[in-house]
Structures are given as C-alpha cells and as structure tokens.
Amino acid sequence: MSTISKPKQFGLPRLFPRPMSHYGIWSWVGTVDHKKIGTMYGIVSFFWFIMGGIEALLIRLQLSHAEANIIDPELYNQLFTMHGTTMVFLVVMPLSAAFFNWLIPLQIGARDVAFPRLNALSLWVFVFGSLLMNISWFTGGAPNGGWFGYPPNSTIQFNPGNGMTYWVMGLNVLGVASIAAGLNFIVTIINMRAPGMSFMKMPVFTWMTFITSILIVLALPILGVAGIQMTADRVYGTNFFNSEAGGDPIFWQHIFWLFGHPEVYILILPAMGIVSEILPTFSRKPLFGYSFIIFSGAGIGFMGWFVWSHHMFTVGLGPAANTAFTISTMFIAVPTGVKIFNWMATLWGGSIRLTTAMLFSIGFIAMFTIGGLSGVTHAVSPSDAQQQDTYYIVAHFHYVLFGGAIFAIFAGMFFWWPKFFGYFLSERLGKLSFILMMIGFNLQFAPMHWLGLNGMPRRIYTYADNMGWELSNLAATIGGFTIAIAVASFIVNVIYSMRNKKLAPGDPWDGRTLEWSISSPPPHYNFAKLPEVSHIDDWWYKKYPSLLEGSPKGDLTPKVKVEDTSKVNESDIHLPDLSYYPLFIGIGLSLAALGVMYTYALVTIGLILVFWGSIGWSTEPVNEPGQDHH
User: Fold this and answer.
1) The whole model's pTM is what?
2) At what angle do helices 163-191 and 73-85 cross, to 10 degrees?
3) What per-residue confidence (pLDDT) applies to 570?
4) Which of the four CATH numbers 3.40.470.10, 3.20.20.60, 1.20.210.10, 1.10.720.60 does domain 39-564 have?
5) What is the per-residue pLDDT for 546?
C-alpha cells in the first residue's frame, strides 16, 4: 500500500505534493500499479486500433472499384505504410502487453511485477513513441516506404523528407518500451511465483508470456541495430544500404526479417496463451496435453529464428539457402499443428458453454488454421515465387494476425473484463460483435486469396477495369466496413455495460487459475495472503478436491470461496509509491529522437529530461519511511 509520508531528506525535490498525487489524474499519471498500467496500455492501443482501421478503410475505398481516384497515390503509400506499422507495433504488441500487465502477477500469485517503475517507463515510452511516429502526418507527410522499410525506397536519395525518418526513429523508441517490458516479465515470472508454483504448474498464458518476453528481449535489439543504421544513412549520410557507395540493400532485408519472423510469434504466442485459458474454462475439463502445449510454444519460439529468409525467396539467395529455409518453414508448422489438435481435444467431450469469449476462441482456431495452411504453401519456394508480392500474401498474414491475434484478444477482453473491472460486458452485444466480425473478416480477406492467384499485386494503388478483380475487391471493401460495424458494436457494448453495470463475483466463469480466487476487481495489493500452489489449475482443484482422486466427475460443489478482503489491514501490505520520473524519461526519449531530425537543441532538452528523470528515479525509496516490506 502506498502511504502519505514526508519527502526524503536527501535526493531531488518532489515535483508535486504527496497528498495531491493520490487523487484524480495524478493517480494514473504517476501510477506504478500493474493493473492501472495494463488498463492504460489497453486504452492507448485500442485507440490506435481504431486509427489503423480507419487507414484500412480508406485503402479499401480506393480499391473498391477499378481506376478509382478517391485518394492520391502518395497518400495511399502513406496509408498502407502506417496501417501495417500501426497494427503490428501499436496495436497487437501493446494489446498483448495490456494482458501481460493485468494478468501475470495475478496468475502467479504476486502483488506486482518485479520492477514497477520500469513497468511504468515501458508504458510512457510506448505512448510517446507512438505519438512521435504519428505526428509525421502533420509535419510534411507520414512514412510511405512500407511497414518493412526496404531500401532503396526508404533511402534519402529516393525518399527525401522526414516521413521514413519518423518511422525509423519511432520504431527505435518503441523498441525501448518493448525491451523494458520483456525484461520485467522475465524477471517477474522467474522470481515472483507463488510458493509451490514450479514452471510446470504455471498457467499456459504465463508460459506464453515468458516465451514471448524472451523473444522480445532477443529480437528487438536486432531491429534497433537496423534502425540505427538506417537513421545514420538518412540523417548523417552513411551508406549501409546504398549500393552505389558499397552498401547492400539486401542486408536490410536479412536484418529486418531476422527480427521480423520472431516478431510474428511475439504477436501470436500471447493469443495462443489466451485461448489456452478460455477453452478449458468453458469446456469444464483440463487443457488436453498441457506439457505438449508448453513445449510446442517453446519450440515455435526456438524455430522462429531459422525461417526468416522465406520472406526472401525471390531475392536470389540460391538453391541451397532456399532449400534450407523451405525445410525449416515446413518444420515450424508442426508445433503449431500440435497446439491446434490439443485445443480440439480439449473441446472434445467437454461441457461446452458458448459464451462470447468461447466463440471468439473457436473462431481463432478456425481462422488461424486457414492462415496456417496458406502459410505452408509459402514454404515451398517455387510456389512462393509465384505468390510473392501478391494479394495471396495479404490474405495469409491477415488470417494469421487478425483472424488469429485480434480474435484471441477480443476473446480475452470478454473473458477477463469482469475480473479487471468488476462487471460483465453484454453477452448479447458480444455475440453480435462476433457474428459481424466473423462475416466481415471472411468477406474481406477470403477473396484476397484468389485475387492474388489471379495476379493482383499487393501495394497496388489502382487497377484497370479489364483485370477481372472488381467483384472480389468490392466484396473485400464491404467486408472491411462490416468489421468496422463489429468494432463499433463492441464500443457500444463497453459504454452500455459501464452505464448498466451487471456486477461480477470474484469467480464468474468458475475459473481454473489464481486470478479467479480473489475479488473482482482485485484489490490494489492483489492477494491479502500469498497463495500456496500444489497443482496445475490450482484454484480449480482447491474448489473441487475430489477431482484429484481420479474421478472424472467428482463432487462439483465448490469447497472454498473467493478470498474475503473485508477484514484485511491494508497498512500491513506495502507496495511502491507513485513515481512521475518514468513519464519524464518517456517524454525525454521522444524529444531526443525528434531532435535528431530537426535541431540538437531538442536532443539536448530530451537527454536532460532522461538524465534528470533517471537520477530522480534512483533516489526514490524502495520502501517508504517507517514501512517494512512484506
């Protein structure tokens, strides 16, 4: 618990009086509570989800009929660049981080993450990094070289102006946020598990977070190196990727996809973890093959480092390299297939409840399977050579990343919303959102398979009326607007449910993991007494101990109740106090990055903020005066 106390005698003076900091907006601006940080991650990334969706709708309007002139070619290039960048770096990654923040301490029986202030820093660096990238819309033009930034299209010689510099500087800042979060969750999961919770007793979502965090810490520095090189090329006149001066543009592709393919699993592994928690709950049976699911996730994380050049089959790597990456890409489909069959076996024979969360989870399995099957066709390099840079590729990665990650994220929101906020979302409106999203998604992206096979290139601005592509593109555009209606219905659901709160008990779904053992929403200290764990799905077996005796049915009358916190003496529980320094460090990093493009005065101001914030952070007490750490 945070306490109001006198400022330290030594160290930097506090910016705000302590009592003021505990009320209103200051309790959010300075928070280091993992639950509030998770909420803010969710709000900011959902805002960018809407912005990315608007960008997609403008693209679809332009392609809805032949020889359209709704937007000009330059704006079109900016839209598809920012749509891809937004959805990968500002939506799916931070939405997953919102679940990490909310759930990991609750699932492992901890009161907070290992480094609460570092957690706040990752949030604020993400917020200001995302703003840095998007202010380019108002300063002469947004990035326009594709979300992958291939030279020479992204070099200063062929792409003057600051658009792509904003892109690369924004990615560098966002990488700091991701690495900070990844390190934090690795340490949290290793060191802060409840007594008795061995690694093979952790929830699957915690496992997938752990693997994802390792991938983040290893992969994002690779993108950082590439970003520094591109920044140097664009701002300081170096020639890392300038072939005329001895550089190599293909080197960018190698280094980008060496980051980019682990990145695909950074996006999808959390979704797999979410679904692996929902399916057993609404099937009322244990997850089939728990250890196989875990080792398959670890296998995907490991093998993801050996497939990057399947993005480059048309570059001219030669038959030996193409063969090696064909084989590795086929192999990586195996652990994914293991997971799909385990999920299906979990459903088989279960007492299934078709809640909104369950419907989105089943939709995830179906859509992700389709995307995975089209992905296997890309593993064969002669086939991929024909599909390369066509709309078939666009269809594939949207089935994987929208039909996969976004469907799972919506499933997770409906599943954990009552735990996060203490009230249910409307199931009726939720099922309407699911139906609209499923129809719209398939209407938009299924026709792209045959558009690609009929030769429609991706990133095309317009097309002639004799190509035979109009009907499929019109269907895709109608599907895109149907998805928009589905998202709008979700927003209506949130507003309606906030106004007509149907309060949720601590364990509304008869859950299996530790977060369901406490009240909804959780108290700020999470657990009055840290739990002791004896089994996988420990909360489930505490409720129904007879199931441990081997009976498949057993006595399904709960034997324990959700933790009662009404008599807890909060003064006995201490958590870190508020800190504003992460906010100022986040502002400083983005100002310094902005200054690289314009003036060293901004760089100086930004670095002063970073230095001042770091010193102030280091002088803040771990425990407040007169408090012992419990």
Assistant:
1) 0.94
2) 10
3) 66
4) 1.20.210.10
5) 81
